[in-house]
Amino acid sequence: MDVTLDTIANLAKRRGFVFPSSEIYGGIRSAYDYGPVGVEMLRNVKNEWWRSMVQEREDVVGVDTAIIQSRQVWVASGHEAVFTDPLVECRECNSRWRLDKLDDPDRCPACGGRDTFTEPRQFNLMFKTHMGPVEDDENLVYLRPETAQGIFINFENVRRTSRLKLPFGIAQVGKSFRNEITPGQFVFRTREFEQMEMEYFCRPEEAQKWFDYWVETRFRWYVDLGMTETHLRIRPHDADELSHYSAATVDIEYEFPWGWDELEGVANRTDYDLRQHSAHSGVDLRYFDQDTGERFFPYVIEPAAGATRTMFAFLIDAYHTEEVRGETRVVLRLHHRLAPYKLAVLPLSKRPELVEPAAKIAQDLRKRWMLDFDVTQSIGRRYRRQDEIGTPYCITFDFDSIEDHAVTVRDRDTMQQDRVSIDRLVEYLEPRLA
Ligand code: GAP
After folding, report:
1. Fewest CB within 10 A of the end CB: N or C in the chain?
2. What are phi and psi of 337, to 5 degrees?
3. Closest ligand 1 atom, CA of 183?
4. Ligand 1 in contact with 307 (CB < 6 A)?
5. Share of residues in the chain with pLDDT > 90 (%)
6. How far is the CA of 250 from the centre of ligand 1 (A)?
7. Computed from CA positions of residues 118, 120, 126, 129, in that sequence, does the dihedral angle turn out positive or negative?
8. What distance in angstroms lies between residue 129's CA and the mean position of ligand 1's atoms?
9. What's the whole-number average pLDDT of the chain?
10. Higher pLDDT, 168 or 1
């Protein structure tokens, strides 16, 4: 791996992927804003997930549920009682740490103090707020820490309206919030982030089969979108790592610059959530099998990924440098489906006889593909910028184009240039960007 965290964070800021949030006020730790280039890539990550998890499947439908739900949801799910991390505070320097993430549980990483930690206390990660103008306990609500519960509480609504039979899945992409004790490593662990989760409901005796299926399917998704297979691995959780709802979990891990870390978890949540919500709400959430006449709580297999974390991993994996004619070229070898812009249209100079026809070509191509139109600086610099944001093809309109009605199309990865007639551009690009 030839890239550091700082290299990616600098590139992300310089090129408009990710900015530290509230920067003009000195920043707010661990919150980030996505810029014009980053918002496109993040959207592409979410769209590719949706395409493979919902659009291309007959057994999965989507929902988009509220971030603020009844407090009872989090009582029933167990989050109010046990969604906690062990917090210790250093008595010397007052820094706070998550005990289970420390290399040495007796030494403060900030001041080096030995045996200076307080006794660990369980810190609940849910953000609290109040619904309405009165800030009392009765109006206490939480920002959701996972999108999954919005799916469980709508299980019966979705089943009834979609008329799906087991096994079937319900998918959701959206923001989640956790008051992490130690956020960090750029956008890897933040307090506000986006998740891509799917709850796959099945007969209990088929849970293991679907668990294996989803681990394999999700692993392939990353590889098919260009992630280096040797930078990915599957790691089963030890019994003491399991979440309160899980009978078995494996993490799909990526080799980040600091080592292997979680990209996505696939969990067997058993019938825990539907049972809990039935018991707390009094609404029977059992599934009725019309063929056998049985009524039972389905088991749930849950592939749960972070959209922001996934985008970060794809950025790291795509980052390459190479020597070209004595200069270092930085290139993001992103899969074209993830690339923020598929094309850049670049008039060779700022002269109107080049800019105007180039702008017309850009306007035509925009209907099909997200593209960048750039007239600033030398063509070499503009190529370099597009390489750094991973644009697969640059289209240059030069002085010859006025005569031959053709443009130069440059391939990001090979840097090979083809002369393509303007009226055949779509035909040329379509199979390459399919
Ligand atoms: N519903 C199950 C669930 O939420 P999780 O392993 O806690 O499981 C799923 O979260 C995924 O969400 C993680 O694998 C990670 O990609 C992402 N994620 C979790 N906490 C995050 C954080 N603080 N910042 C960014 N992404 C996070």
Report:
1. C
2. -70, -25
3. 23
4. no
5. 96
6. 13
7. negative
8. 21
9. 96
10. 168
